Fold this sequence. Notes:
Structural class: mainly alpha
CATH architecture of the domain at 70-184: Alpha Horseshoe
Largest sheet: none
CATH superfamily of the domain at 70-184: Tetratricopeptide repeat domain
CATH topology of the domain at 70-184: Serine Threonine Protein Phosphatase 5, Tetratricopeptide repeat
Radius of gyration: 32 Å
Strand content: under 5%
Order of helices and strands: HHHHHHHHHHHHHHHHHHHHHHHH
Amino acid sequence: MEIQQRVDPGGPRRRRSRRVIRTALIVSLAGCVVLAGMSAWRWWRPAEGPPAPPGPGALARAAVTGGAPAGLSDLAVLIGEQETRVRERPRDAGAWALLGTAYVEQGRRLADAAFYPTAEQALRTSLKVRPRGNVPALEGLAALANARRDFPAAREWAEAAQQGNARRWTTYPQLIDAYTGLGDHKAVKRTLDRLMELHAGPAVQARAAAVYRDLGWREDAAAVLSDAAAAAEQPAERAAWLERAGQLAWERGDLAVALRHFTEARRADPDQRAAQAGQARTLAALGRTSEALSAYRAALTNQPAPEYTLELGELYESLRLGQSAQEQYDLLRDQVRGAAADGVDGELLLGRLEADHGDAQEAVRVLREEWRRQPSTAVADALGWALHRTGEDEEALKLATRATEAREGGGERNALYAYHRGMIERSLGREGPARRHLDEALRINPYFSPLYAPAARAALEELGEAPVGEVPEMGGGAG
């Protein structure tokens, strides 16, 4: 008897389909188990904390490469890290460039030019390792030249960096400093416009404020600096912008605001010695002489900047402490000579010193050479004053006018410059203009100098009231 075999109508294809379905179900169940386990792990495991904050070296690196001031302790760590790196990898051009730029910042913060030759060696090593396209090294050399007040070299290095990468925004502040030092005001404005197109942030705001201040736009400068300080991420950066805000307040004679900004800057960064010198300047104007002297000495101990030495000397002189004043003036000459050995041009400050407290003929010689090399507004004022001190008042007035007339680039609203112009005009017998510019100096800042603000008042008193019907000069003036 035949047994009839039942045949599955789907055949092998159906059996394979069933196996696939069973496999898919198993995989799906396994996936659910895994997901449930992962969810349970996430539910009961301890929550992860926030990421570790960047270390000191990383903070300094971000500041140095981002155009912001770096904290001194952070900077020391960064320099140590980069020195180790270049020893291990002497062909690392980027490490050499960063090391050199960090040394520039350290020298600037400490007012110690001895760091600059080391910075230059590191930056030139970077260029030797990578001669082409090494924009960080070119930019670092521009920063070094600006720190040394060698503005022609700074312009050359910065323009080379710009050609290498026209969109690298950190090059443009170096260009602005160089053009300012060379008295090229049109280039300053053009470069600031380009910088603001490329980048925004506290460092750019602070740079814009410096340009606005030089143009006489003090309210704009103060507002932008306030924004920069509020947006600063690190204490050293915030302190730097607060110090500049304090300087702006000082320049307009607002002592309470100046002292508040300087104090806040020191609270944010105790190493902010420019703010400590600002405190000293303001305390002297407030008549708190003992506190002012202590603040100047402390600032100079930690940051022996020659300009603070001159200020302290003139404060001593205003107090009739002639021997103490002379010690500061002699110290300043030594500081300028020492810095010159490390490549720093201190001729502007030396010329100012000699014009008022030394050899006026030597001041003229020094400042004529400085004017030939880098004809800035500051040099125009200093050379004009030195010429006045040697009796060359006609030539002196031309330079004083250039330093104070906005149409000639001198729109800064600087009380000392206005005082110099007024005294030169007085010497020439031009009493009306003299009266106006001396009065303007005291309106800009009644406390601009412990020596020369009282001299301006005495000269005004001697000139007496303006005659009825005296017509003001056309064309502006210090304001």
